[in-house]
């Protein structure tokens, strides 16, 4: 056997060995792309919503169970634009709804939420629908606290709810003050009751909830800063972090409804106290 024929035999054997190894090597299964929330909504033609019922922007009639409110109406309009139906899947809480989104219990938080930097790693938010102002409210007859700079004092007690914005504002703006915390399932008006009954001295709460309380209990509380809210928060929709498809679809609809005064009409329909809701400024003014 010549050197050339030996070399050819070796090459054939090596090629056969490598080919056999390739055939015997387990192949990795192709990774299936996880369906996004937006893709699921479009496939099922159903938008599953989580919500919190309160007197702000989303209400539930205790007798009939019927929903109403600003975010209820806007959600139906957005669903109509997307050609999907809305399923009000789960009543949630502000303290736990972002965990519900992560675990896909529903597709969107639809009753309006104030975005927080602390939640930015867990949620994706829409553009603002409207703004809410938070006032500093005290008992009408309490003269111990007459100015906002008197609150940051260890002798002052602020009513808050676990996981609710008032606790964060109190921590950031009045770190020396005490807090009196209620469970996260508590109605916001209960914070005001703790002030009127003397259990707490201050409540940091949105204008609408405070005015609603005053409508039934006139002369009980007053706002130390009526013309300058201590916080101004955008009210938005929330999705699981990274769900940009949902974000873009909702943002497009929201901007359309802002520009063409659809949202303004819905706000006026539900705004019980004039000028209690802060509007999103339109990005242009008509030419005169």
Task: Explain the overall architecture.
This protein is an alpha/beta fold and 288 residues long. The protein folds into two domains: 37-131 and 232-270, 3-Layer(aba) Sandwich (D-Maltodextrin-Binding Protein, domain 2), CATH 3.40.190.10; 132-231, 3-Layer(aba) Sandwich (D-Maltodextrin-Binding Protein, domain 2). Helix content is 35%, strand content 22%. It is built from nine helices and twelve strands. It has helices at residues 3-24, 37-44, 70-82, 97-102, 165-173, 189-196, 207-216, 244-259, 262-270, and strands at 46-51, 59-60, 67-68, 85-91, 108-113, 123-125, 130-139, 157-161, 178-182, 202-206, 221-223, 231-240. The strands form two sheets. Strands 1, 4, 5, 6, 7, 8, 9, 10, 11 and 12 form a ten-stranded mixed sheet that branches. Strand 2 and strand 3 form a beta hairpin. It is globular. The termini are far apart.
Which helices and strands occur, and which strands form pairs?
Elements: H1 3-24, H2 37-44, E1 46-51, E2 59-60, E3 67-68, H3 70-82, E4 85-91, H4 97-102, E5 108-113, E6 123-125, E7 130-139, E8 157-161, H5 165-173, E9 178-182, H6 189-196, E10 202-206, H7 207-216, E11 221-223, E12 231-240, H8 244-259, H9 262-270
Parallel strand pairs: 1-4, 1-5, 8-9, 8-10
Antiparallel strand pairs: 2-3, 5-12, 6-12, 7-10, 7-11, 7-12
Helix pairs in contact: 3-8
């Amino acid at each position: 056997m010549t050197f050339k024929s030996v070399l050819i035999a070796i090459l054939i054997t090596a090629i056969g060995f490598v080919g056999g190894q390739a055939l015997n090597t387990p192949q990795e299964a192709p990774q299936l792309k996880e369906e996004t929330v937006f893709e699921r909504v479009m496939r099922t033609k159903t938008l599953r919503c989580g919500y919190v019922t309160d007197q702000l922007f989303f209400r539930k009639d205790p007798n009939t169970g019927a929903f109403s409110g600003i975010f209820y109406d806007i959600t139906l309009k957005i669903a109509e634009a997307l050609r999907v139906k809305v399923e009000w899947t789960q009543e949630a809480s502000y303290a736990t709804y972002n965990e519900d989104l992560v675990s896909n219990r529903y597709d969107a938080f639809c009753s309006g939420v104030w975005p927080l930097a602390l939640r930015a790693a867990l949620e994706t938010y829409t553009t603002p629908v409207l703004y809410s102002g938070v006032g500093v409210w005290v008992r009408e007859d309490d003269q111990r606290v007459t100015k906002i700079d008197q609150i940051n004092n260890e002798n002052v007690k602020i009513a808050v709810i676990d996981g609710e914005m008032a606790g964060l504002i109190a921590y950031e703006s009045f770190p020396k003050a005490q807090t009196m915390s209620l469970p996260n399932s508590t109605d916001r008006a209960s914070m005001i009751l703790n002030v009127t009954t003397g259990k707490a001295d201050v409540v940091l709460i949105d204008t609408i909830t405070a005015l609603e309380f005053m409508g039934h209990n006139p002369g009980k509380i007053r706002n130390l800063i009526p013309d300058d809210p201590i916080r101004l928060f955008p009210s938005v929709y929330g999705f699981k972090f990274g769900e940009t498809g949902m974000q873009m679809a909702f943002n497009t609809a929201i901007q359309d409804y802002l520009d063409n005064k659809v949202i303004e009409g819905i706000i006026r329909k539900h705004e019980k106290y004039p000028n209690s809701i802060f509007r999103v400024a339109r990005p242009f003014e008509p030419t005169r």
